[in-house]
Amino acid sequence: MYDVFITKSSTYLPNEPVSNDEMETYLGLINGVPSKARSLILRNNKITTRYYALDKQGKPTHSNAQLTAKAIEGLFDENFTKSDMKLLSCGTTSADQIQPSHSSMVHGELNIGRSIEINTATGLCNSGMNALNYGFLAVRAGVHEAAVCAGSERMSSWMTADKFNHEAENLKQLEERPIVAFKREFLRWMLSDGAGAFLLENKPRENSISLKIDFIDFYSYAHEIEACMYAGCEKQEDGSLQSWADYPSDEWLKQSIFALKQDTKILDKYILVKGAESLRSSFDKHNLDPESVDHVLAHISSGYFKEGLKDEFAKVGLDFPWEKWFYNLSEVGNVGAGSIFIALEELMNSGKLKKGEKILLCVPESGRFAYSCALLTVC
């Protein structure tokens, strides 16, 4: 078994940062009316700028595969070239197509000129960590000397007004108020675009910061809790999900079946408690002392959860002081599967890290409540 190190990181955020006041310029107005929920959601999530792979007419400027490829290209240098890449592992919530796989499309964008091993992790925020874990295990087992891992999202194109106008028009015909359900509109003001990538190698780099991956752990609570975030389906009264394939095609637009939705009541009830429970399990499993952790990078979807997450961690004996926490949510937005990559890249290249320090990564996923965490050592 080999030690595994993150030897280089790279981020790609498309176009210029978009302020809160500009969001509807890019995403458009549902039914031609400004959103009444937008200001409330933005006030709670504490995000001030984000990035969209859209122009001001709502037309795409990049695909998800292109965003990911651009982040990965930042990893190549004289020490690791395109020809050195043998394994590509990518995770995303928002692939550009159902098939082929996201990593297949990224491989095509990179113009490597030869075949490589690819792996695609799908799901929600944990798909980025799943992709990282695949690369970690491959290098650790000696299958490859290096791996390129990436997490990315292009959610903006899912959130443009035209995706919801059919539903609003249907509500009009039913003589109801033409307001799209909060569970659908909520995420329009929460999500953004971008990609981050890591190079994993079995040796640290000299004269630069490398991060040794000590472990990556995963926990799912789907055996206890119904789905909270979902797309391509509709939630039934008993909590089950009915697939898009089981609906008549004319209902796909009327009910915005393919829209990403979130049950905010379940979110509030479980997301922090189960996150603390899973992290406590990892600390017990590895016999870790919380005081040994120097930096805490916890992916959160909203600033609304920032205080609560610290409090829930403290309740299970993981009381990390504020000076150890690192967030960039307010500046780059919630990039889902790419968020932890983007945050760690910023910290890794900040000049603040010292050899021997420990970095804790925590990623929640509200799909059906799954969590991951990782511990890194600065080398």
UniProtKB/TrEMBL annotation:
EC numbers for this chain: 2.3.1.41
Keywords: Acyltransferase, Transferase
Record-annotated Beta-ketoacyl-[acyl-carrier-protein] synthase III C-terminal domain positions: 284-364
A GO BP entry: secondary metabolite biosynthetic process
SUPFAM superfamilies linked to this entry: Thiolase-like
Listed GO MF terms: 3-oxoacyl-[acyl-carrier-protein] synthase activity
Signal peptide interval: none
Domain named Thiolase N-terminal: residues: 65-165
InterPro entries, alphabetized: ACP_syn_III_C, Thiolase-like, Thiolase_N
Keyword Hydrolase among record annotations: no
Taxonomy, superkingdom: Bacteria
Keyword Zinc assigned: no
Chain ranges passing through the membrane: none
PANTHER family: 3-OXOACYL-[ACYL-CARRIER-PROTEIN] SYNTHASE 3, BETA-KETOACYL-[ACYL-CARRIER-PROTEIN] SYNTHASE III
Name of the featured protein: 3-oxoacyl-ACP synthase
Organism of derivation: Chryseobacterium soli
